[in-house]
Amino acid sequence: MFTETRAYSGFAVGDVAQAREFYADILGLRVTEDHGMLTLHLATGGAVVVYPKPGHVPASYTILNFPVDDIDKAVDELVARGVTMERYEGFSQDDRGVMRGHGPDIAWFTDPAGNVLSVIGTR
């Protein structure tokens, strides 16, 4: 039934302008806006809709993952742009906040709305 449907994902934020600045200026994604909502244009050709939600409560799980060739370089660039890497109790994360040796290397951070994102090492 949906084999030809061009599905997309979406998530909420409390402040669209703040989200636009973060996703465009900090992460460097191409972002467009229409009807008060953002579209994040991904390198895969896919898109993610970001919509305003009064009383937004951030997701308690990772909503968007960014695969990267060099996770250390990606984390260093994010930190240089003012992003703080998240640390989770019970996870063995190094001084950069990267969890290594339990599947792919991964580090988490949040957008201004508190939604969890990650960078995942691909090599």
Structure explained in plain terms:
Keywords: Lyase. It comes from Longispora fulva. InterPro entries: Glyas_Bleomycin-R_OHBP_Dase (IPR029068), Glyas_Fos-R_dOase_dom (IPR004360), VOC_core (IPR037523). The chain is α/β, with parallel strands linked by helices and 123 residues long. The protein has one domain: 2,3-Dihydroxybiphenyl 1,2-Dioxygenase, domain 1 (Roll). It has 2 helices and 7 strands. It has helices at residues 16-26, 71-80, and strands at residues 9-13, 30-34, 37-41, 47-52, 62-68, 106-110, 116-121. β6 and β7 (116-121) form a beta hairpin. The longest helix is centred in the N-terminal third of the chain and has 11 residues, at 16-26. The mean pLDDT is 95.
Task: Please provide a brief summary of the model.
17% of the residues lie in helices and 32% in strands. The protein starts with 8 loop residues before the first strand and ends with a strand. The strands form two sheets. It has a four-stranded mixed β-sheet with strand order 1-4-3-2, with helices on one face. A three-stranded mixed β-sheet has the order 5-7-6.
